[in-house]
Specification:
heterodimer; A: 351 residues; alpha/beta; Rossmann fold; 2 domains; 8-stranded mixed sheet; globular; disordered C terminus; B: 308 residues; 12 helices
Chain lengths: 351, 308
């Protein structure tokens, strides 16, 4: 897959801070400060046309927030989002229709993403109706039948209600809805994390097939590295609202640079290396309301020094061909081999 | 689809909705009972054997007659007469008109207002929600009867005396609706806040649906279940509240008694052995409330596709 010069989707300096302050009265009476949760804190990202870009990271690192920012469900605090060069930064979801039609979303929970009171037919036809894509109900029926068959279901299933289907079938319906408006770009927010492993594989294969047939571009959000390895052309590893390492999937997986990436990859179960000493991922993601100064990963990083604790690392080209935000990588003071995480976080404790 | 598409009526008869209705014998009977009580009330001037409010036709000689089948009964007065010689059956027929009107109309207004407030509050949250819910809290802290007395007092002060009787029905409906809408609003707000964050609502936002369209097409059908249950219970409650208010003198005038007024008046004669004056209106009320509740249960289940 080759990328054309202009990326389909690009984000620059994207930030989303949520106001989680206590209510006004409490702030006044108890002298509590305003609090902001920095879910996404300065994110640069480009997704080439026809490829799959995966965002990986632990829970709470801001992956899903990025997904919702891109499609307009959240308004960004700062930064910009562009789709084919059109600025969508301050546009809400669904606006402008001509462009939003071309970007749709597949959700995580197949039990919550389909309205239980609607027939499957109406669920799949909703984007067609709202974007006014078909002239009458008969052509809508035909299109829904075609879409159902495209995702491996029976065209007669449209008359049923969502609760009559299994999780995997529901996710197929969800995909059918997402592709009904003929999008170019699909945001997939952990589309398989609620499914059985065997069903996961079916859904992932379906998504790959659809990508080939329809020329789709995916922003794929997941914490499951095996799934990401299977799906991705490019990878962005997120930690606390920022990308710490990004590059072609093959290079990131084969030659991870950033200590956090190494730590994550070390958690993948591997049959061929069953007897190697496994280091459990220690420590937790710090609180995004009060992130540590400097590199956000330094409390857990075995290579951190004074510079890491004070200066925020920028994304730089690493020797592997990926881009890494790490002082240790840039200075070449990183040892090879698996990363042993700092087990506790004493650096954060006041002494 | 074939060329001769079935008519809308045929499609309706063939639907799951009608099927589940016909399948449930309890619902059929409950509907039959409700409809016949409503019809009897509507047609009271034509089917009632006497006009209980026409003083010229009343005779004190006929007073306190037992039902027709009991000893000393008069076949002209099927369910007996009260202390003023009024036919109990006719009084029930006329009385249920008022009770049903107060019940249905007040439930309708409370439901529409409460559901609308609940949806708006729950969906938009923030300042709108805070304002509506504080109003609701205040309303909730006033007993219905107190509000009704207040409303009635204001109306009586504002309107000339000869209009009081005409306004009685409206005052009752207003007083009951303004205290019961809070229940709908609270329930709907809670469910709406849950549904608002569901992924199917996000999916609807992605295709550019407006907030109003999401609220009506997506959220409303998912929050109506509990509302129907509250509505059927409140219908019975409204009829009973109306009876209480009439007792306190702010409801219907005694010359135009409702079912509740009949029960209250009849109650006074119960210990003198004149049981028919209170028992028959009570039975009518119990049967009506039960039938409406059973219909409400069926409606709630029939509207939930998971239970089909």
């Amino acid at each position: 897959m080759t990328a054309t010069s202009e990326p389909l989707v690009s984000m620059q300096g994207l930030k989303k801070h949520f106001d989680v302050s206590p209510p006004w009265l409490n702030r006044m009476l108890e002298r509590k400060p305003r609090l902001h949760l920095r879910a996404v804190d300065g994110l640069d990202l480009e997704i080439p046309r026809g490829t799959t870009f995966s965002l990986v990271g632990e829970s709470g690192c801001g992956k899903s927030t990025v997904a919702r920012l891109v499609v307009g469900l959240y308004a960004p605090t700062a930064g910009s989002i562009r789709f084919e060069g059109t600025d969508l930064t301050d546009r809400p979801a669904g606006d402008p229709p001509a462009i939003r039609r071309r970007m749709q979303m597949i959700f995580q929970d197949p039990y919550a993403s389909l309205n239980p009171r609607w027939r499957v037919r109406d669920i799949i036809a909703e984007p067609l109706k709202c974007f006014g894509m078909l002239p009458d109900r008969a052509s809508e029926d035909r299109e829904v039948g075609r879409l159902l068959e495209l995702v491996g279901m029976n065209s007669q299933d449209g008359e049923k209600y969502p609760h009559e289907f299994s999780g995997g079938q529901r996710q197929r319906i969800s995909i059918a809805r997402a592709i009904s408006s003929k999008p170019d770009f699909l945001v997939c927010d952990e589309p398989t994390s609620a499914l059985d492993v065997s069903v996961q594989a079916q859904i992932l294969n379906l998504m790959k097939e659809l990508q080939r047939e329809l020329g789709l571009t995916y922003l794929f959000i997941s914490h499951d590295l095996a799934v990401v390895h299977f799906m991705s052309d490019f990878i962005g590893v997120m930690y606390l609202g920022r990308i710490v390492e990004t590059g072609p999937a093959r290079q990131v997986f084969a030659n991870p640079q950033h200590p956090y990436t190494r730590l994550l990859l070390d958690t993948i179960p591997d049959i061929t290396m069953a007897r190697r000493d496994r280091e459990p991922v220690a420590g937790e993601v710090p609180n995004p309301i009060d992130p540590p100064p400097g590199c956000a990963f330094h409390p857990r990083c075995p290579f951190s020094d004074a510079r890491c604790r004070s200066e925020l690392p920028e994304l730089r080209n690493a020797p592997s061909g990926a881009r890494t935000a790490c002082h240790a990588v840039a200075e070449g003071r990183l040892a090879d081999g698996p990363v042993r995480a700092v087990p506790s976080t004493p650096a954060q404790m006041p002494t | 689809m074939s060329a001769d598409a079935p008519s809308r009526f045929a499609v309706l008869l063939d639907s799951d909705f009608v099927y589940s209705f016909r399948k449930s014998r309890v619902t059929l009977i409950a509907t039959l009972v409700t409809v016949s009580i409503i019809m009897a009330a509507l047609l009271a001037p034509w089917i009632a054997p006497h006009d209980p409010f026409d003083v010229a036709t009343l005779s004190l000689l006929d007073s306190e007659l037992p039902p027709a089948w009991a000893e000393g009964g008069d076949p002209h007065f099927l369910l007996g007469t009260d202390n003023q010689g009024r036919d109990v059956l006719s009084a029930i027929l006329y009385g249920s008109r008022i009770s049903l009107a107060v019940g249905f109309v007040s439930v309708f207004f409370a439901l529409v207002a409460g559901v609308a407030v609940g949806l708006i509050s729950g969906y938009f949250g923030g300042l709108v929600d805070a304002i509506f819910m504080r109003i609701a809290d205040v309303m909730l802290s006033f007993p219905t009867i107190l509000v009704a007395l207040l409303v009635s007092g204001i109306v009586r002060g504002a309107l000339p005396r000869e209009m009081h009787e005409n306004a009685a029905l409206a005052v009752l409906v207003f007083a009951i609706a303004i205290t019961t809408w809070v229940q709908y609003a609270r329930t709907v707000r809670g469910s709406t806040m849950v549904e608002r964050g569901q992924e199917y609502v996000l999916a609807a936002r992605l295709v550019g649906r407006s907030s109003a369209s999401i609220i009506f097409r997506h959220i409303l059908p998912n929050v109506m279940g509990p509302v129907l249950v509250i509505a059927t219970i409140n219908l019975a409650m409204a009829i009973l509240i109306e009876a209480t208010l009439s007792f306190l003198g702010v409801g219907m005038p005694p010359t135009n008694p409702s079912l509740g007024t009949l029960i209250r008046v009849g109650n006074e004669y119960l210990f003198s052995g004149i049981w028919w004056v209170v028992i028959f209106p009570s039975l009518t009320l119990v049967v009506l409330v039960l039938a409406v509740n059973l219909m409400g249960d069926w409606l709630r289940d029939a509207l939930n596709p998971k239970l089909r």
